Amino acid sequence: MMSKVEGARGQGTKFNPLAKISFPLVKKRTSTVKDSKTFVEEIRTFRTSPTDILVSYDLKDLFTSIPIPYTLNILHELLYTDSTLPGRTKLSPFQMVQLVSFCMLEGNFFHFQGRYFRQQGGAPMGSPLSPVLAEVFMERLEDHAFSKADHNILPHLFKRYVDDIFVIIESGREETFLNFLNALFPNIISFTIEKEVCGRLPFLDSLVMRTSEGLKTRVYRKQTHSDPYLHFSSHHPRAVMRAVIQGMTRRAVDLCEPEFLAMELHHIYQTFKTNGYPPRLIHAVIQQTLSNPRRQRTSTSNGPRILLPYYKGLSEKLQKLGRTLNFSVCYKRGPYLRSLFRGDKVKVPLNEQPGVVYGVRCSCSAASIGETGFTLSRRFSQHISHLRRYIRAEQELEDAGHSTTTTPPICRRGMAGVFEFLLGMNVSPKVADVL
């Protein structure tokens, strides 16, 4: 798993230009399901025959198995035939593919234990481009499967979520279809199969049951699942704890047939009671969610938004104050025990982390505060370049009565540091701190 957070190819699909431009090309087919809720809604009306069998196919290691050159050719074809592309970008299909190719083949590197590596094949997990390329490849695989397969082995129902495929097929032909899928790209992709047991087959987080009345569904949990949800004694906002119950209740409403809903709600009640939640709170949240399962939250403040670590007691007062002064308070996760003791993650030096606010103070109490999306060392290199270009900058500081050789403090999240202005320009990669 490669972390692309704050990287050149990161920020998620929403903020990654290449992924954002390419995403409208995929997930338009009726065979593609968005989530468990969509899957359940689409199969409920399907009627099976006594000779049918429920089967799921899973593609092993999808991202690392994607043939990148082959997939890039498909991407170019899709971009070239997309009439809406000029509305999303000024780049040509060729330029788009060249950029994606660079990210996948040239810029596909990561840092581990002090050394840099580059992935040799497939698409990296963690890159926002990888899900798009995976979908491009899987849709083309579908085209090959349904255009080349013998009509007798084709499934009666075919639904896919990324690399998980749900199929209803005539019993006895499921293995033949599996062999056909594996033969489409031999030595590149490999599917596994899971068959129904007593007319039941799990898919995503739903359990599909074949009955005389048709297909029925309910929430699926593995036998080893122990319901380890957020404990009520945890140091979290009350709204987060309510949201956990709401999410479980909404899932029950979305996935359960009416005859299974009461049983699932009872399970939710007992689960959160075991996790220390007051019974009265559990009951109230469940009933509120049932009465309005898709309630949309509306923002009551158009003012600024403040992001703070949660501190029980104080944070609630700040949030209440924000309502009266027209600003909203949101909470972020602070350091926790696991993060403090883990040593397997790569720790990027502060001066090499992008997106910082930095400050330099003078002995006369004047201060220079800056913000940059680059790393601190790169930003200070720019400052040094500017100082060299504008030789008069230091003289102007002296004429104004400012000292450039003092040791004023610089803060990073309340932690004090020390740093000389011009000296710091030269040694910033080693000593500079960020706010």
Automatic annotation (TrEMBL):
Pfam families: HTH_animal, RVT_1. It comes from the Eukaryota. Residues 1-234 form the Reverse transcriptase domain. InterPro entries: DNA/RNA_pol_sf (IPR043502), HTH_animal (IPR058912), RT_dom (IPR000477). This is Reverse transcriptase domain-containing protein. It comes from Trichuris suis. The lineage of its organism: Eukaryota, Metazoa, Ecdysozoa, Nematoda, Enoplea.
